[in-house]
Amino acid sequence: MVASTVNLDPKAIESNISRFAETSKALMKGLDVLGQLHPFINIAVLAFKGVAALEIARRDNNKKVLAIKSQMQDMMVVLFQLREIHDPEELGPDDETTLKDRMAGLMETIATDIERCGNTCDVYTKKGFLAKALKSKIYEDRLAKYVQMFDEHKRELQFRLQVHTARTVDHAKKKLDGQEAHLKLILQKMEELFRKLDTPREREVLTFIKDNRGAQACLDNDATLSKLISKSGESITSFDPTNSGKGDLASARKLLSAELVEDVTAAVNKNFDNFSRKSKQLADTILAAISDGAKIRDKDLQTLWNDQGWKGSVKARTFVLSLNDYYENFRMNKDIPATESVVGSAPPSPILSPTSLEAPRPALSEDDRWALSYINAVHLQPILEAVDDDGSGFVSVTEANNFALKRPKGWSLLQWVAFWAAGWHPTVTWYKNRIYNILYSMNSLLKLIHPANAQFADKYFAGPGIRRVERLLRSAQSAPSKVFNDEHLKHIAEEFRTREEDKLETKLEGLLYELDDSATIRGITGHRRIERYIFPLLYLLLGCHLDILQIACIHVLDEAEFNAMKSALSAVFAAVEERINSLEAVFKSKSLDVKDRIGHFAFGMVYISNNTIIDFTEEDGYEWEDEGEHLGPDSDDEKEEQKTAFNRVPVEILRHEPPPDICRGVYDLEKRYTLPETPMSEVDGFWIGRSMLPTGLWGAVESLVLIANGNLLTGGLEYWYSLDNVTGILEEGGNVVFSQWAPSGTEIVCTGQYDPDTLTIKGTYQKKINGQPVDGVYAFSYHRTPAYAWRFRYNDSELAENPARARWRFAINAILDEVQRAGKSRSYVIKCFQEAKRWVELVKRDRTFNRNLSPATPLTSEESKEMQHLKDTVLRPCDARFFSLVVDFELQKMVIHERSCDECKRLIHGIRQFCIQCMDDGFSDWIDLCTNCLDKTPQRNGFTHLSSHLQVKVYVRLHDGEMACVVPVAKDVAERVKKWLRLTASTRDEAPKPADSPADDALKTNGQATNDSKPPMCACCREPISPPCFVCARCNDDVYICMSCDAKRLLPHSEASEAKYHKLWEPLIYIHNIDPIPDVISKDTQMEMISSLDTRMTNLDSRIEALEQKLENRFQVLEGILRGFGEKLVAAENVASTL
After folding, report:
1. What is d(CA 326, CA 230) in angstroms, rounded to the nearest whole number?
2. d(Cα 807, Cα 824) in Å, to the nearest integer?
3. Cα–Cα distance between 1005 and 985 in angstroms, integer?
4. Which of 1006, 1002, 1025, 1005 has the alpha carbon at shortest distance from 1014?
5. Minimal CA–CA distance to 452: which of 885, 894, 853?
6. How far apart are CA 717 and CA 933, in angstroms?
7. What DSSP line would sit under 908-934, residue for residue?
8. Where do the record's region annotations for Disordered lie (predicted)?
9. How far is Cα 691 from Cα 700, in angstroms, rounded to an integer?
């Protein structure tokens, strides 16, 4: 047996893991030098550098992944044996093969396997904890196989080098024995190593899954799934696909089931291109960081550093003030006035030592003289932040080099310092304004999104990514507009912005704008501070997302496209979060006020305040949009104009193929599995039948196709919900064994017997995972009956009772149906249409109810039986599958508001109505109702809703940014409309004409007259309007819609000039009556009143207690007096009796 070259000792592995970054950097340096001597190894070296760089860039490294990559390191170390061979063209002992020729092919193979391993590790690392646990065996087996590969490559490298150097030629000619046993040993050791690397949480979860019959069984049971999530340490809210913090077991089951059925091979292959792009970028970034020297490389900084006698690092404040004085001497001699601060006041520079004042003057061109006015104490803070990357308060040699050498080509150091002193803040403001413009354009575009994309687009725009962007914009302080009065400063700011955008755009395009983790962000920005890049990065990224949303208006996109957009924003803000955590740790270590320092750091941009949507106020320097800048069509534009604008966006920017038509491939069973012209066996062909469920009932009808090639079987099995491949064996005597593999890795093994007399295949099936049974054994039965005739087939009891009658009835009905189907008679088509329509209706209601959506009407027991009958007997599997997909597509097009009805507690879809009288001041809490509960009066969080309250009805999702506009407008419109309706009502009742009031003047101003005008009319039916009714909250003129027309969703009448621009999706204000709107007492006011009442009651209790004590004291005194008086009376009586 061959000795293993793999060191899988746990202690050695732990040591390698802890030093992975350090050893990888040293190894990459050495391999670069070796690659200059032997260029043929560079293909493998480049692959290794990309994989290692990605791991180094990650903050949270997985120990199992590092264990695999440490074996990759060991393999690469073998290449250093090449250092003893100086000529790659040197011939070996055979005088025919050069070292290059002997090794080149192996290097390509190694490079390929390194990249594949890195890609698999990347997919594994990005999975959540439970996703890894559910498929731990699958992932670990894949990872262990790469250890096998690296061991094989390591031994092959040694073997070829030995052959070339003729050290062990005899041994080289012998084949290695025990190869298979050796590989099995590695897998066994890796299994043991993985178990030792398991965290306590992993061990507990894996044991729990095993004890509960596997992953699928855990997901199927609510109680087990709840325990599994609890043991994993993850919150149920983390499984909410809407990111609204309202996750439930249904959402968790859906997401985890998707992970379980995901084909790992397909996921790995899909990730490969993205992995390759980001690993190459990261390799360049890491190498650039490694190559940074320990000496100051800028001439001016080198002079300053040497003159000050600084060593490895210097206090950041001292460094900036010394740099300030280095140029201040020149400015004072030239008599150049200092500028005003654009970021606020800063403490004046202290008097520096004579040594620093005598520093030699820098050589300056006349073009740089303007910059001297910005090198002063008032601009100290922004310069300080620009140089001190880690915020530690010290500037290292590396940081000084980073600062100086990152300046644009052709810029002097003085210009660079001046830019960070006064030009960076207005540049941030420039980006801030334009990002706001992009968000505004996105919000307008959401109304035009294709219905099939609407849910995905809404979730993206309402997700945490966009919310974090908006909070970032609020946090960043805008620079004053006057800052660009200096043309020199304006010029270099524009030049910097253009150059940086070009660099970032090139890198983003190289990654196809796909950013999946913070390590990818570091591949773009390097290890410099994220606050320098966050605004231009978001500007470019959101610009790309806006283009994708425009494409989504006319094309149906894959959901993965929107998920990638959300992931990109998550990755960006993960990097921001890491930076914030780093700064907080530094500030805490210095006993500083963390909140205050974070709030003022980098113009406040990393503070990311928790402002609500009503707190926004414009600042000096804020600009809404540039003149002539068009970011896309508006919802009010003509449709042709919109379509033309959308078509200008190239679809090539999409990263995922659009989803296929829902009907594609559904009816392709016969095309997908083509039968030979001459059957190879009696089982060849199409079968139809059913399988028994664990409940003991027969399941839905299934279509089976089998194709024999010798004794091997291939084919497919079609259910009402999927189509899966099958493989098997046809044994002698008609025994049939075939397996169907589910994407989750579950194998369904069917063992049956073909009966040539009855033309049936009957037997049993059993589910297995990793070869182990996970369920009982259940029956199946397939027949040669055509799929369309299955509905007429007799059952076993009918056949047993009267075989002739059962078969005769079946034949008549089947032939009659075939004739009608072939002739496409009107009655036959109508019957099929009604069956399909009924199936869609029942399934849609059933799924709406089961998915906790509202409005929902649960199926009755009779309807459930009807739906089951249609699925099990009437519809062919292909028909049921097609109409099931139709239902899913219809539900996908429904508007999901991500709000639950406060009465029935179900998730509202379609139409939503919310109360603005039951709403807090911050627009963060209110009462929502679905269309089933409009007459209900729910109570929650201090709100008591009444049907007479002022409400808003919305047909599309209303995002946070729109609430600040819709709610105040709705209140103003409702107040005006109610006054107008009261006025017209009093006119109809011939009430005395009231004197003009300010409110009446307002009505006239709005285009409405007073009591001599006609009453308002419905914009659709043109009938006089009266409450209850609706009024549009968006149209400039008041557009009234009666309850009947709204229920029918009628378009405005052509004579309704006030509704010329009204859209059906616009929010409507519900007017229940003409009573004035009562003042709403806010929650804060209520709490203050309650607090005040509590205080008064407490005071009253104290006063009563004091009064009671006072009375008690008096009663005691009185009691004493009475007791004394009684004693005197007794004494008097005694005296009297004595006398």
Report:
1. 61
2. 25
3. 20
4. 1025
5. 894
6. 44
7. EES-EEEEEEEE-TTSS-EEEE-GGGT
8. 988-1013
9. 8
- Measured CA to CA in angstroms, residue 585 lies from 135, 581, 590, 591 at distances of 36, 6, 9, 10
Measured between alpha carbons, how far is 346 from 331 in angstroms, rounded to an integer?
19
What does the angle CA 648 – CA 650 – CA 654 come to, to the nearest 5 degrees?
A: 140
Residues of the chain under the 50 pLDDT cut: 1-3, 167-176, 244, 336-362, 610-616, 622, 624-628, 991, 994, 997, 999, 1003-1012
Measured between alpha carbons, how far is residue 46 from residues 35, 108, 526, 851 in Å? 10, 11, 18, 49
Structure tokens at 135: 């498929």
Rounded to an integer, what distance in angstroms lies between the CA atom of residue 1050 and that of residue 607? 49
Quick one: tokens of 1024? 């006089």
**CA distances (Å), origin 862, targets 361, 720, 792, 854, 865:** 95, 21, 21, 22, 5
Which three-class secondary structure state does DSSP give residue 45? helix
Please confirm whether the linkage preceding 362 is cis (ω < 30° from 0): no
With contact defined as beta carbons under 8 Å apart, do 118 and 56 qualify? Answer: no
d(CA 984, CA 991): 10
Long-range Cβ contact pairs of 234-243 (< 8 A, separation 24 or more): 234/128, 234/129, 234/130, 238/128, 241/459, 242/459, 242/462, 242/463, 242/896, 242/898, 243/459, 243/463, 243/464
Cβ atoms 338, 373 nearer than 8 A: yes
d(CA 255, CA 1054): 48
What one-character DSSP code corresponds to residue 854? E
CA 444, distance to chain mean position in Å, is 22
CA-to-CA distance for 790 and 875, rounded, in angstroms? 9
Helix (H, G, I), strand (E, B) or coil at 1057: helix
Alpha-carbon torsion, ordered 141, 142, 143, 146, to 10 deg: 120
Neighbouring C-beta atoms of residue 323, cutoff 10 Å: 23
pTM for the model stands at 0.78
CB 875 within 8 A of CB 716: no
Q: Is the dihedral of CA 827, 833, 837, 839 positive or negative?
A: positive
- Rounded CA separation 1036/1014 (Å): 19
pLDDT in tens, 272-287: 888 888 777 777 666 5
Q: Which of 468, 490, 471 is nearest to 481 (CA)?
A: 490
Q: CA–CA separation, 498 vs 417, rounded Å?
A: 18
The pair phi, psi for residue 812, each rounded to 5°, is -60, -50
Report residue 455: phi and psi, to 5°: -60, -45
DSSP H or E segment with residue 779: strand 778-783
Q: Which helix (H) or strand (E) holds 467?
A: helix 464-475
Task: Name 692's bridge partners.
Answer: 698
Angstrom distance (rounded) from CA 147 to CA 72: 8
Residue 717's beta-bridge partner residues? 704, 724
- SS3 of 724, please? strand
pLDDT at 616: 47
d(CA 94, CA 101): 13
- How many CB atoms lie under 10 A from the CB of residue 530? 25
Beta-carbon contacts of 872 under 8 Å, excluding residues fewer than 6 positions away, are 690, 698, 699, 700, 701
CB count within 10 Å of CB 54 equals 28
Tens of pLDDT, residues 203-243 = 888 888 888 877 877 887 878 888 888 888 777 766 665 55
User: 740: Cβ–Cβ under 8 A, 6 or more apart, which residues?
Assistant: 717, 724, 725, 726, 747, 748, 750
Amino acid 290: pLDDT: 55
